[in-house]
Amino acid sequence: MDKTDNSAALLELAKAIRRPPISLNDFSTLSDEQLTWLSDQVHSMCQREYQQEQQQLRQKTPWLLRVLALKARKHDE
Amino acid sequence: MMSNLATQAELVKLSSMMDVPLSQLNFLKAVPAESLRFFRLALVELHFEQKRNAYRWLGMWVYMLPSWVVALCVRWWISPALTAKIACSLSAWRMSKIAGHLPDEFMAKVAAAFDPRAARELILLLPLAQILGIATILLRDRDYVTMGRFVGLLNDQIVQQIAAAITEESDLLEIAFHIEPRERVDHLVHILPPERINKALLIVCDPAKRQVWPKLLALMSNIGYDLKRQLGDLAVLQGDHVIEAIIQAAQEDDLWEDMLPVVTCLSPDVQRHVANLPALRRPEVMLRIVLAAESCALWTDMLTIAAYMNNAARDAVAHAISQVDGRILNHIAYATLLRSQWMVTLDIVRRLPRDQQMACYQILNHYTYALDVETTIYIHQLLVEFGIMESDLT
Questions:
Q1: Minimal Cβ distance to B32: which of A19, A23, A26
Q2: Which end of chain B is more exposed for a tag (fewer CB within 10 A), N or C?
Q3: What burial letters (b/e) apply to B2-11, b meaning 16+ CB within 10 Å?
Q4: Which of A45, A72, A77 minimises the CB distance to B19?
Q5: Is the bond leading into B181 cis (omega within 30 degrees of zero)?
Q6: CA-nearest residue of chain A to B60?
Q7: Taking the model in full, what pTM does it have?
Q8: Which of residues 34-63 of A touch B (CB under 8 A)?
Q9: DSSP annotation of B281
Q10: For residue A65, what are the CA distances in angstroms to A73, B355, B378?
Q11: Cβ atoms of residues B393 and B357 within 8 Å
Q12: Which helix (DSSP H) or strand (DSSP E) does residue B375 occupy?
């Protein structure tokens, strides 16, 4: 696969892991589909964790702490 | 240097982190282990940096409550994964106070999600009994990745006690396979009793422990020069059946790129013995070795081993080389130049088909212009002695 073919996918992956694209040079041998799949996995990993924690904070934290925690979370976003 | 074993270890960690089956990450096998490690560490950071302020804020509340109340809240309301994230924003002293009220079972689950960068000081503050208890739970759950992550942070005395509590050598090898940073492996092997290392080596003769063989080879490829030599000598002392089993494991899992540098560290007598074993001369084995030397730029190592080879072994090397792409000859010539192994290389070249001998001669012609007079004369004499001179070929 030509390097230019997957540069957009490589850029997307670098963005997903918050690293400069040049640091992922060794991943440039991967195809566009493979890089996109990796980016999707990173996004779904983050999403999964976020939802699990959100659910925990909603269900298990005492109501006063919950209100404050969710407020802090919103502020963080 | 690329390493199949290091890549494999990284893929295991990545699959557990991304929660995808290992088989789905097979396409990453071509990526060097170091780059996979970089990618994984970026994910770790992403994992802990996400919503960090919220965890810091929750951590602030932890300081306002007594340790036992926090421990109670954590046990009843918060999952180990979330606990690990909040704990990372606390001081080691505070974490250790709360940990004192938590059962080992829960702590083991927290450890699996904990950022090892925040654990260094905490580990120093935890009582030995608790660390041993957590290690026992992790071992019971076969969570070797977590154990490997933390074992590098423990002091020698604790490592020795944990190792003493682990009865199976295969478990020790599994943990060693995941130790981070890899530079610690050498030291950790040093502090283990020699009889445990002996027993670990013998695992390679036990077909029932087949899945652990690559981990033993990984251990051998990650230790320092002296220890490689010691372990190699020890392996030879166990008998040829052990060395042949190691050769078989390296062949079956295609681990020659990891094993070639190990062989070059062995003591000269042991290297001679290993280099001339019939098991190594089998055409399919030698072809894989030659391919590994070619793909991983290991010809300098290969020539060091070839220096100890007898005629039959060098015939096998020549036969394998003759089956590979012609560009291989350029790489061999360059490694020969670096190591000044002209005698060994030309003794192998004389065993090649005539057309490849001619190709070698032409490559060497380019080199002789840049070499000093004495070396050029020496090479010329060897070419004549081995019958590779152009006049003999045409």
A1: A26
A2: C
A3: bbbbbbbbbb
A4: A45
A5: yes
A6: A69
A7: 0.75
A8: 34, 41-42, 45-46, 48-50, 52-53, 56, 60-62
A9: H
A10: 12, 81, 83
A11: yes
A12: helix B373-385
Chain B residues in contact with A17 by the CB 8 A cut-off are 39, 42-43, 46
CB-closest option in A19, A61, A77 to B42: A19
B205–chain A Cβ distance below 8 A for any pair? no
CB spacing of A50 vs B32 below 8 angstroms: no
Tokens of B193: 């009793």
DSSP assignments along A3-68, one per residue: GGGGHHHHHHHHHHTT--GGGGGGGGGS-HHHHHHHHHHHHHHHHHHHHHHHHHHHHHS-HHHHHH
Closest Cα of chain A to B144: distance in Å?
22
Residues 6+ apart with CB under 8 A from B9: B33, B177, B178, B218
Helix axis angle for B354-368 and B328-339, nearest 10°, is 50
Q: How far is A4 from chain B (nearest CA, A)?
A: 18
Nearest-by-CA chain A residue for B76? A60
Q: Which residue of B has its CA nearest to A46?
A: B47
Query: CB of B180 within 8 A of CB of B148?
Result: yes
Cβ–Cβ contact B27 with A under 8 A: yes
Contact B366, B329 (CB under 8 A): no
Ordered per-residue pLDDT tens for chain B, 394 residues = 346 788 888 898 899 888 899 899 999 988 988 899 999 989 888 877 776 777 777 777 778 888 888 888 888 878 888 888 888 888 888 899 999 999 999 999 999 888 877 788 888 899 999 999 999 999 999 999 899 988 888 888 899 999 998 988 889 988 988 888 777 888 888 888 888 888 888 887 777 887 888 888 888 877 888 888 888 888 888 888 888 888 988 898 888 988 898 889 888 998 999 999 999 999 999 999 999 999 889 999 999 999 999 999 999 999 999 998 878 999 999 999 988 899 999 999 999 998 999 898 888 888 877 788 888 888 888 888 888 875 544 4
Sign of CA dihedral B96, B100, B101, B102: positive
Mutate which: A10, A33, A35, A38, vs B, most B CBs within 10 A: A38
Are the CB atoms for B242 and B201 separated by under 8 Å? yes
> Which chain B residues contact residue A49 at CB under 8 A?
47, 50, 81
Q: Are A19 and A28 in contact (CB under 8 A)?
A: no
Please report, as a single letter, which amino acid is at residue A68.
L
Residue type, B171: D
Q: Which of A25, A30, A46 sits opposite B50 (nearest CB)?
A: A46
